[in-house]
UniProtKB/TrEMBL annotation:
Pathway where this protein functions: Glycolipid biosynthesis; glycosylphosphatidylinositol-anchor biosynthesis
Cited InterPro entries: PIG-V/Gpi18
Stated name of the protein: Glycosyltransferase RgtA/B/C/D-like domain-containing protein
GO CC term, one of those recorded: mannosyltransferase complex
GO terms classed as biological process: GPI anchor biosynthetic process
Membrane-spanning ranges: 40-63, 138-156, 161-180, 186-205, 212-239, 259-282, 294-313, 319-340, 352-368, 397-418
Annotated signal peptide: none
Broad class of the protein's primary localization: endoplasmic reticulum
Keywords of the record: Endoplasmic reticulum, Glycosyltransferase, GPI-anchor biosynthesis, Membrane, Transferase, Transmembrane, Transmembrane helix
Amino acid sequence: MSQAVDSHAEELPSSDDSASIRSLADAGGERMPASRRFSWWLYVVLIYLAARVVTTVMLLALASVQGKNPWTGAHPSYWDYASIWDGTWYKIIAYWGYPSQLPITTSGHIAQNAWAFLPGYPFLVRGLSTLTTAPWEYVSVFVSLAFGLGAALVFYKLMRVWLPAGTAMFAVLLFCIAPVSPMFQVAYAESMYIFLLVLALYLLVKRRYAFLFPIIFVMSFTRPSGLAFALCLAMHFAYRWWQRRRDPEGHPFSTRQQVLVGSVTIFSGLMGIGWNLIAWGSTGFFSAYTETELAWRATYIGYAKLLPFSSWIQGGNWWLGAPAGAIVVVLLVVTFGLFMATKAVRRLPIDLRFWVIAYAIYLLAVFFPQSSTFRLLMPLFPLLGVIALPKSRIYRVAVVILFLAAQWGWLLICWGVDGADWTPP
């Protein structure tokens, strides 16, 4: 990888919590007149709330024409509609926990069950629901909303590490209206996970390694992430070791930092397999978690063992036929590699590029491509900073329109239920 601008390079603007920012229409980063200044966090809050209002209108429009389905009756309320799909699994986990005996299909394979979903989000919602006596449907949505707002606030701080204020704020707008941003207001764990991930990346960029331990612990029991983050940390360690005598800020990779980074890398790797071990201990079946995950792709390709880096080839051939599917997958990988080598992407802080690469490798290694993949691309959010770079207002208006149209399209295809639906979100 070519030499990149570090997150601490001198030429990049420093973050200033008290600095005022321009309105979204002005993305050049200049200051507003003193009489029109507001705190950065107020802009983020207003953008986030406005984006959620737009998404709420979309969801209500779909709910008004939604027919009876496995989760709700016809024309469900917003709260019921926001709790379908995986939200029902999380509710089952919150109130009934995980099965000690794995369900078996008539063919002798492990069937879909709760072990595919991690406990961080449902247990938190259950605890708050018990404290407030409010129904699951209300609490789950409000928890997602709160974590989404927290993620947007930290995302702005992360973008300000390398972007001027106006551009960083436009990146926040894209973050809040992204095609799969409805995840910030439904009963899914993504909102909580994205908040923890943005915070972890911010701590990594700022080299506050010790604070990563508790964040990684909770994050790893919210969404599968420990192994991908461990790979990112390993890249960070290798890069800092290589640069240890020529750090751009004159801060060498001290022995203390080496121990911390090495320790947190190992810790993240262990957390990455922690849920597998818990599922094994609870069910007595060594591959309980992986076999459960494989049950979801059995609808497409039948039951098969998990072979790393084979899922995308299998999926490509299932969707497009062989060998066209495999060829398309190879082209996607090559295109991604070329994209990561572009000048615009190389402006990203090196640690954010490490994360994007690590997570892309993780997806390629273990996930099967289908409609849920769009949601699984959410952790690639650092690339929104690259999309926000051009300052043309025509470009920015076009991108906003495109994102909103894609959000509506994603809801139509993935969230609305139409009979035997093959497009789960």
